[in-house]
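Supplementary notes (optional reading)

For those who missed the lab, this is the record we used. Protein: Phosphotransferase. Length: 188 residues.
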Amino acid sequence: MENCTDPDAAGRQGQAQQPATTQAYFDAASAILALPSGTMEPDISAELLRRHFGLSGKLEILSSEVERTVAVDLADGRRLILKTSTRPEARDSFAFQAEAIAGLRRAAGFVVPDILPTLGGSLTFAEDGICGYLQTRLDGIALHQMEATPDLLFRTGSALARLDLALAPCPCPQPTARSCGMSVAGHG
């Protein structure tokens, strides 16, 4: 796997390198985000959860951008998020997201979900045109539901700057235009 950034440049300058052209990056990301959600396919989330993770629980489809995002409440009280998609570009995106989240577990100062491995031990699964991953669900208030005060904006910007630095040494797949669509939630 390649690093998320050029490790030599990051080491020389102490910071991650920007994409070749920021406008091209955002144009590509915007085009992917403009696609309709993949939630029109029949929901087989319960079967995927059982087959790949050996789990079952109460499922609720959540609002999502392109992929299907399902809240999973297990009988033992654990709360999870199952992300799946039938889109070919989701495979790289999910691999990046899962590796990045897993990589942040070692970074100080972050509250991140745990990525639950499949029964086969991998962070993601792909089968019959469907790919996905499973993570724990964090408590908190979604950023878009909070009042945009100057303090909140400062704390959000500071957290994103720390996130950028923490991801610099990440041994995750090369990011794609859609890879970085991870949720940001406010945690008191």
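If you only remember one thing from this example: Residues 58 and 73 are 5 Å apart (CA to CA).
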